[in-house]
Specification:
Layout: H1 12-22, H2 34-44, H3 51-61, H4 65-74, E1 86-91, H5 94-98, H6 101-112, E2 125-130, E3 142-144, E4 147-149, H7 154-162
Parallel strand pairs: 1-2
Antiparallel strand pairs: 1-3, 3-4
Helix pairs in contact: 1-2, 2-3, 3-4
Length: about 160
């Protein structure tokens, strides 16, 4: 581990939260808690994962680092570079695309002045395209924090974003 900042992140409350997830699985299957462990570590480290953090998860769950990297890079909920305080995940899969997600994305980029994968200069917003958020009936949709916003229009996007701190 090369970063002093990332040393010992799995301790105290973080360790307790991961241990609660581990307790859901058979004693010899603690690696099954890798996804919630990564989510917890990402949350407490400011919203993104580093190799050092993933290595700590691997050590704690007694997994190879590559197995943890595979999970962390496969799923879109894990970030590998800093994101904005409000991470906008815009679904661009078929239902959302057919109902205007491309136009919603264009509106978001214009309104915020950043592209996909970028963070606004004030650190407040970032935009991420995601494959599917499982809300096809409410397309086009986005996830902002842990909330889903469906049937988006340019006007509803403006209202949602203007209401954030």
């Amino acid at each position: 581990m090369s970063s002093t900042m990332n040393l010992n992140i799995i301790q105290g409350d973080v360790k307790q939260r991961i241990d609660r997830w581990i307790s859901h699985y058979p004693e010899d299957q603690k690696q099954s808690a890798v996804m919630p462990a990564l989510r917890i570590v990402q949350e407490v480290s400011g919203g993104s994962l580093t190799n050092e953090l993933m290595d700590q998860v691997a050590d704690y769950l007694e997994m190879t680092p590559i197995a943890v990297y595979e999970v962390a890079t496969f799923y879109s909920m894990y970030e590998h570079k800093p994101v904005g305080k409000h991470k906008i995940c815009l679904c661009t899969n078929i239902s959302c695309m057919l109902r205007g997600s491309d136009e919603i994305l264009e509106h978001l980029e214009k309104k915020l002045g950043v592209g996909v994968g970028e963070v606004t200069p004030d650190g407040k917003f970032s935009i991420k395209k995601v494959e599917c958020l499982g809300a096809c009936g409410g397309a086009p949709m986005m996830m902002l924090g842990k909330e889903y916003y469906e049937n988006l229009t340019e006007e509803s996007i403006d209202e949602i974003l203007d209401g954030l701190e």
